């Protein structure tokens, strides 16, 4: 029936067409065509797969290169961080050393300040004492105790005015002077020599007075109580 249909159809449209083959030949041709199409499809699939693999490999290679670049950057950053850490450690060590030195300087300055404070207090006390002495000297300046005679910047006491009957030896006389916060006279100027001579002559013509001159160390060698040797006894 298929052959008849083909025959009728071709006859209907004209006699210029070739003769239609039978159905077996058609099936064989279709099978071959399908086989060719399948092979072409397989080849195209393989080619597409290879293209995809090449693209995937390129993408993988690109991703790998990107990862390598990132890893390189990370290594570089890690090295920079290590160097920064080492530098920070060095700076910290220097700061610690500076802190220790500063602490030692503070301790030294504190000790020096305490010492200066003590000296200041001592000087302050000394100043107050000197001021008190200056005040006392100002009040008694130019004056002598009762029964004492003033000459220039010195005061003289002649014990005869206190008691004319008590006689003392040189050593006892000097001790008496020491108790009065004084000492036996040391004549060191003609003016003082004249003053002493005139005063003795006026108050006790026939009595002698001890002065700060002695030869107790070596008889005949007269020495003043300030260890100055007298060339000629006065």
TrEMBL record:
Residues 151-234 form the C-type lectin domain. It holds the Pfam family Lectin_C. The keyword GTP-binding does not apply. SUPFAM superfamilies: C-type lectin-like. The keyword NADP does not apply. GO terms for biological process: cellular response to molecule of fungal origin; innate immune response; phagocytosis, recognition; positive regulation of cytokine production involved in immune response; regulation of canonical NF-kappaB signal transduction. One of its GO terms (cellular component) is cell surface. One of its GO terms (molecular function) is (1->3)-beta-D-glucan binding. InterPro entries: C-type_lectin-like, C-type_lectin-like/link_sf, CLEC7A, CTDL_fold. The chain crosses the membrane at residues 26-48. Keywords: Membrane, Transmembrane, Transmembrane helix. PANTHER family: C-TYPE LECTIN DOMAIN FAMILY 7 MEMBER A. This is C-type lectin domain-containing protein. It comes from Oryzias javanicus (Javanese ricefish).
